[in-house]
Design goal:
With about 180 residues, the chain is of the alpha+beta class. The chain has one domain: 3-Layer(aba) Sandwich (Aminopeptidase), CATH 3.40.630. The chain is about 35% helix and about 25% strand. The strands form 2 sheets. A 4-stranded antiparallel beta sheet has the order 1-2-3-4, with helices on both faces. A 3-stranded antiparallel beta sheet has the order 5-7-6, with helices on both faces. Strand 2 and strand 3 form a beta hairpin. The longest helix has 15 residues. The chain starts with a strand and ends with a strand. The model has no long low-confidence stretch (mean pLDDT about 95).
């Protein structure tokens, strides 16, 4: 299992849109995908800064999004996003990093490898620690985070604040 993290490009346009369709059909959230679910086309999605600034206004945070591509066949297996700063909302609920993996590619170690690779990028940006969150019910994500050094700080009950009654677990990873 070997993957590479690469910046989105036209070469992956069809795979990105198929990723969106598969995740939505499976009822999965598109975490780490720069609101891909809101977009009808690859080119609309690629206009990250303009589109996300318009949507989030003062809550917009610049980020670096990467496609996780399997080296053996150049298949898009996941996406991961590194938010370059934390707003109060992200500090509470979202963290510095979001990621997702195609349903057919889960339980193969891709999420852990994606996170490990992205942590090196975070170090290169001068980060000393990053915040990564997950739903308490998401055991796979929790294992991914702790495998990469995540230490649980606390849990926050949403009480429907952002559309869910889920409990969010907040982990810090020292770099």
């Amino acid at each position: 299992m070997s993957i590479k993290l690469i910046r989105p490009s036209i070469e992956y346009a069809d795979q990105v849109m198929q990723y969106r369709d598969i995740m939505q059909a499976n009822g999965d959230s598109l975490d780490g995908c720069a609101d891909l679910g809101d977009c009808r086309t690859f080119f609309e999605w690629m206009d990250f800064e303009r589109r996300l600034k318009a949507k989030y206004g003062d809550g917009y945070v610049p980020s670096e999004l990467y496609l996780a591509v399997r080296s053996s066949d150049n298949k898009l297996v996941g996406m991961i996003d590194y938010r370059l700063r934390l707003t109060p909302f992200l500090m509470q609920y979202g963290g510095n990093i979001g990621y997702s993996v195609l349903p057919s590619e889960r339980r193969k170690g891709y999420a852990s490898e994606m996170l490990k690779m992205l942590l090196a990028i975070c170090r290169d940006h001068g980060e000393r620690k990053v915040l990564v969150t997950c739903d308490k019910s998401n055991e796979a994500s929790r294992k991914t985070i702790t495998k990469n050094g995540g230490a649980l700080e606390n849990e926050i009950e949403l009480d429907g604040e952002i559309g869910s009654n889920e409990i969010i677990q907040r982990f810090w990873i020292k770099l």
